[in-house]
Amino acid sequence: GAATKVVSVGVCMIGVDCVYTGPAAQASTVIQTLPLIHHFTNNLVFQHYAIPMMQTITPSLGPQGGGTSITVRGIGFFDSPLLRCKYDLGHISSGSNVRFVSTTEVVCVTPPITRGEYGMELTFNGQQYAGGCGNTGICTFKSYEDPVITGVSPKGGITTGGTFLSINVLSSVSGYLGLKCKFKAQRSTDAARLASENLLLETAAVFSAGVVSCASPTTIAASGSAVLRTATVARPDQGKTQVQISWNGQQFGPPIATEADK
Question: What pTM, to 2 d.p., does this model score?
Fold first, then answer.
């Protein structure tokens, strides 16, 4: 009949019956035969892949509090449960903070990172990391502290926008990109109307000699109605925004900034 192999340990070869003669079987008067038990799985697959290569990261800087959504572009990417983004000193983006998009794109959301510059790498197996980015072979991410806003002039402008502001800051962020001003509504009802009209109240900015300059945006909706209510004696808090600055084109800070009347 079928081939039978006597073994003294619990390991069986595929395609044969096994008779156990170890201690448990020897204590019994009954010989136990387990037909065709497969202790090896046929479906274990090990993937061999070429070294992935990172080419660019955008943006390449963000605030030290984290939350920067970095688009990593390169070649040889693939989806993996062990996909991680690593920054020097053991800072890791994993789980919901890393997302495979395509064979040429991965998105990483930064964790809180101490201010400084870090080499950013990707791993697809949790052990070996891919680098890249130009001749240096290092993709550098810069973590910065949002400069403190000390003043803004003028402190008011008409609702149609176009008022040029000078925003004084104690310091700047070297290597900044996508510099922007944002006018954040202070009142929740104003913020709701802005969202419903899809008005971001963001404008491009420039920096020179400790001053960020930008123009105020319009707060008039496409329908012609004013999204921000102007101040009245009864409601002096209406029509006010907080001026914030983004040094990476994505995140705005400080969280609490100088008020600008609209």
Answer: 0.74
